[in-house]
Amino acid sequence: MRRRLAGWLANRDIVPTAGQAVFGYYADTGVFDRESIQLKRLVDARTEAMIRDAFDPVEDELAAAFDVEDVTFEYDTKLTLPAELTLGQLYRAARERAGDGTDPVALSVWADNSTTGTADESDAVGPIRYRRPITETAWEVGPTGAQEIVDRGEYLTRLVIAALIDGDMRDAINDEEFEDFDVSFRLEPGERKRVAEIVQSTLQSELDAAFDRLPDEIQEIYGWAVDVSERHQDRDPMFRELLADAQNGDQQARDRIRETYRDAPVTELDVDVDRFAGIEDLPYLKTQYARVGVIYDGMIEMYRRAGLPVDDAFKRSIVLAIIGAQIWLDDVDDFVADRVDGQLTPATAEYVLAADDREAYEAIVQISERYIDLAAEYATETDSPLTGIAAEYIYRSGDPSVLPGHE
């Protein structure tokens, strides 16, 4: 009865999307974890503090470069969501491991001084906080208790957040798209690119210093992920040419899009193919993994190689959710612009592969649902209600009515 009621509420427009996601996930799985929902508010607050911390040196550099005072830099991105979900999962693990009645999450170095009084105990290592000075040997040994899971998880989350924003800013510079950020001072025409370059170089400098303090293995997995992603980006001119030829009626181009883009074998990736066991038949898996998924695969592996308790099912749920979000939210929303611009995406691909607009529309909906449903299944398997709710939220945030054939 409760699950039926939750399903009914999940489909009421009067309920905010976040609430629909909670009710929808409960209706589908029977999982309602009040602690996780409360934990999300805490994670949101702490990761927002980490983002602000990452922007402190950025704002200093912008102030110096433009000769202004009290600069504020704001960046509209949801890229950090997987890092937030990972931190929430580690908080749950730490609480389960704690056996002395204390709450290691409450004793975080990112906690509010007024409530815990513990932040002053941290030893600042560059701009990234950690409770005590950490050596490379300590990283290699791994966390020995619940509090170290929290501390180390937060340290890496703060680092990952900066890395994700750095990568997104690199893309913005390459694509000359500078609409997602704002500064608190007036910019002249053409100066937004200069802002982006200052932000990216400042973040990169911080990341280089932070990675120097970590074992090589952690830095190498990040470098590997970036390399796979950049090699995919290097193929963009070829993909654009294929789309243009297919739009002009070239059947061979359509066939190549199927073979090299939609149904390309994952064995061509520079990854362990076991990562894809059981899901190899997902359309666009190889190309979308290389496009967006590999960055988050590398992110999760950084946590794992630091000895933190994050399992394969959790990583799969994150990677599949990210690919699903890329298709269902970004590619669907940007369909018209991408088609005009000649950008090959799963959305623009389906409209040259399908027999008509309706068939293409249905294919995009079905493909997106497969990714998001699988993400929710793996989230349930790894006992991560927050990730399952996030997958539900992604689905309920999509608007396929913007696509041709919706009617």
What can you see in these coordinates?
α9 runs antiparallel to α12. 42% of the residues are buried. The chain has helices at residues 2-10, 17-29, 34-66, 81-97, 113-116, 136-141, 146-175, 191-212, 216-234, 236-247, 251-262, 285-305, 312-333, 335-341, 346-353, 357-381, 385-397, and strands at residues 73-75, 123-125, 128-130, 181-183. It is an all-alpha fold and 407 residues long.
What is the percentage of strand-forming residues? under 5%
* Overall pLDDT confidence: 84
Residue share in helix: 55-70%
Low-confidence stretches: 2-10, 19-23, 113-126
Largest sheet report: 2 strands, antiparallel
| Count of discrete alpha- or pi-helical segments spanning 4 or more residues | 17
What is the strand tally? Answer: 4
Distance between the termini: 34 Å
Strand order of the largest sheet: 1-4
Computed Rg: 22 Å
Secondary-structure element sequence? HHHEHHEEHHEHHHHHHHHHH
Give the tags.
two-stranded antiparallel sheet, 407 residues, globular, mainly alpha, disordered N terminus
What is the element layout, followed by pairings?
Elements: H1 2-10, H2 17-29, H3 34-66, E1 73-75, H4 81-97, H5 113-116, E2 123-125, E3 128-130, H6 136-141, H7 146-175, E4 181-183, H8 191-212, H9 216-234, H10 236-247, H11 251-262, H12 285-305, H13 312-333, H14 335-341, H15 346-353, H16 357-381, H17 385-397
Antiparallel strand pairs: 1-4, 2-3
Helix pairs in contact: 1-2, 2-17, 3-4, 3-7, 3-8, 4-7, 7-8, 7-12, 9-12, 10-11, 11-15, 12-13, 13-16, 13-17, 15-16, 16-17
